[in-house]
Amino acid sequence: QKEVEQNSGPLSVPEGAIASLNCTYSDRVSQSFFWYRQYSGKSPELIMSIYSNGDKEDGRFTAQLNKASQYVSLLIRDSQPSDSATYLCAVNGITNAGKSTFGDGTTLTVKP
Amino acid sequence: DGGITQSPKYLFRKEGQNVTLSCEQNLNHDAMYWYRQDPGQGLRLIYYSQIVNDFQKGDIAEGYSVSREKKESFPLTVTSAQKNPTAFYLCASSPSFNEQFFGPGTRLTVL
Predict the structure, then answer these.
(1) Which of A112, B21, B25, B37 could form a disulfide with B93 if both were Cys (CB 3.0 to 4.6 A apart)?
(2) By the CB < 8 Å criterion, does A33 face chain B?
(3) Sequential DSSP letters for A63-105
(4) What is the distance between the alpha carbons of residues B35 and B52, in angstroms, rounded to a whole number?
């Protein structure tokens, strides 16, 4: 089992729809959770971080964390073609603090 | 401008040759990281450093070496011992050992 698993995708949604990206992790004591967006051929950029259970909203993005289920998700509302990218989930544990483990990413395509 | 720079953008290596990838940041971040990304894959950690003159191996350190003599700089050397070095190399830094900020990357190709 991988430490951080994401839906392999690709995920395709129509413009204006809600895109839902999911991530599960194996280390029960993980503390910090991040979503990065990576456009094709470019480097990742941080879009959301979440540290406690519940929802965190930032514009059209909402991160959801459920530590009991070891699950973190990213919702993108009113999806735009410019949201088409690969989304990487990253998790930091207590041991080796400061070291992130990344999932393989989910590729999202938003169709006009 | 504050940020992270990597050079070169593209690098070609001959068999048996060592090459060094540059990573510089002027964000005053303590932590710096090197990752490797293969097509269709996530990021795999090569080395990371949380303080000057100290660094730790990541998950795939074999065939690579680093130094951290200055806070701003974290160069990565890909040695001839790395048998399959063709990949996209990403450097990142972090102010808090949590969120990471990435440079533009270096694409290394073995000829």
Answers:
(1) B25
(2) no
(3) EEEETTTTEEEEEESS--GGG-EEEEEEEE-STTTT-EEE---
(4) 19
Among the listed residues A96, A46, A87, the one whose alpha carbon sits nearest the alpha carbon of residue B58:
A96
Chain B residues lying within 8 Å of A104, measured CB to CB: 40-42
Amino acid of residue B62: E
Give CA torsion, residues B78, A5, B99, B85, to 10 deg. Answer: 10
Which backbone phi and psi does B54 adopt, to 5 degrees?
A: -145, 140
Q: Report whether A22 contacts A7 (CB < 8 A).
A: yes
Per-residue pLDDT band at A97 (split at 50, 70, 90): low
B53-80: string of b/e by CB count within 10 Å (b at 16+)?
eebeebeebeebbbebeebbebbbebee
CA distance B44 to A104: 9
The H or E element that residue A14 is part of is strand A11-14
**For the segment A37-76, what is each residue's pLDDT rounded down to a tens digit?**
999 999 999 999 999 999 999 999 999 999 999 999 999 9
Contacts of A58 in chain B (CB under 8 A): none
